[in-house]
Amino acid sequence: MRRLLLVLCLALAAVPAASAGIGSDAARSFGRGLFLSSPGGVVATAARVSSWHRLAVRATRGSGISPALLEGMIFVESSGRPQIVGLGGHWGLTQLSTRRMRPAVQLRATVRRLEHALRALGRLDLAVASYHLGVGPLRRMRRSYASFYFRTPIQGPAVDYYWKVLAAERVLRLYRHDRAALRYEQRLQVKKNSAEEVLHPRPSTLQFRTRAAIARAVRAQVLVPIPRDWRRTHIRVSPLLGQLAPRHRRLYASLRPVALHILLYIGHELRAYRPLLLTSAVRDDEYQRRLTQINPVATRAYSMHTTGYAFDILRSFHSGAQKRTFFRVLERLQAVNAIAYIPEFAAMHIAVASDAPAKLALLRSVE
């Protein structure tokens, strides 16, 4: 009877952050680390982890823990390598302890640990997070892991753990059901120093080839002007923006409405400090080509600026507090896959997802 009650408790508690609409976005965002760091590549790692599927099914049978969740933990902890020794001498598929165990024994012990954490915390998402954080910091939390994540002052890889497990589950689903999509995403992930081409793949994203195309987009409100009232927006527009087309500078002070929405949100979140300085917004192909002649950082390949979804903010801060707040805002937006950002030499390059306002609304709902 106790076992049955535990299974029912697990089933009722298995309402992860995805129930608030954030889990799938976080899985996409935190998946980038898996694409970049998986030994032998993400496809090979997914194959290794999948080879433990039967053992995961046996270990979770009757527990209420899904094999997919356990396999996600295997992916994150060991990339499916049973002999790996990690930090602190932790060993094996789930890095459970420093004691060597057969894989089947270790997986069953991992499930028991999750069950124990669930009894203490009452939610499966928190139980998974406790695998690295411990039960203590989460014991008083009665809301979702997402609420904890976006409120806690704790920082570091341990806090990200649950998102990484969700990301691994997503990768494994793609490996089993749409391997071509997995390989395509892998190619996109390695193209830039951020996931911006995953947000806006070149073949399916409209680019502005000419200044006339930008002008037409502004008239049609596909692009919208960036407000100049910095006292209200807390964003100053650099006087150098559009300097390579001095007679048409105002055209280049435009963005897609969703990108402007996020820019203004960033300004609002930093309203207690000096205004931020916007240095780049939309560009056309010709402007981008001219820019590469004077700016070594400007790409000669696919520039996100030519889509209107990207802008740059000068990395100049009045105080350490402003800098920390700025990066915290960006990290939160990136966690829900609303943006992808690249720290460049002088500026922060930020690409905005086409559905970023909806993701921002979800973020606000759990803050």
Question: If you had to describe this structure to a student in words, what would you say it looks like?
Answer:
It is a single chain. 51% of the residues lie in helices and 8% in strands. With 367 residues, the protein is an alpha+beta fold. It folds into two domains: 2-189, Lysozyme (Orthogonal Bundle), CATH 1.10.530.10; 196-366, Muramoyl-pentapeptide Carboxypeptidase, domain 2. A hairpin with a 3-residue loop joins strand 6 and strand 7 (347-352). The chain is elongated and about 70 Å long. The chain starts with a helix and ends with a helix. Residues 1-20 have low confidence and may be disordered.
Question: What is the compact description of this entry?
Answer:
The protein has 367 residues and is of the alpha+beta class. The protein has helices at residues 2-13, 23-37, 42-50, 53-60, 67-78, 103-121, 124-133, 145-149, 161-177, 179-189, 196-199, 211-219, 230-233, 249-252, 257-269, 285-292, 320-335, 356-366; strands at 224-225, 235-237, 254-255, 276-280, 310-314, 339-343, 347-352.
Features:
51% helix, 2 domains, five-stranded mixed β-sheet, Muramoyl-pentapeptide Carboxypeptidase, domain 2, disordered N terminus, 367 residues, two-stranded antiparallel ribbon, alpha+beta, Lysozyme
Topology:
Elements: H1 2-13, H2 23-37, H3 42-50, H4 53-60, H5 67-78, H6 103-121, H7 124-133, H8 145-149, H9 161-177, H10 179-189, H11 196-199, H12 211-219, E1 224-225, H13 230-233, E2 235-237, H14 249-252, E3 254-255, H15 257-269, E4 276-280, H16 285-292, E5 310-314, H17 320-335, E6 339-343, E7 347-352, H18 356-366
Parallel strand pairs: 2-4
Antiparallel strand pairs: 1-3, 4-5, 5-7, 6-7
Helix pairs in contact: 2-9, 3-5, 4-5, 4-6, 5-9, 6-7, 9-10
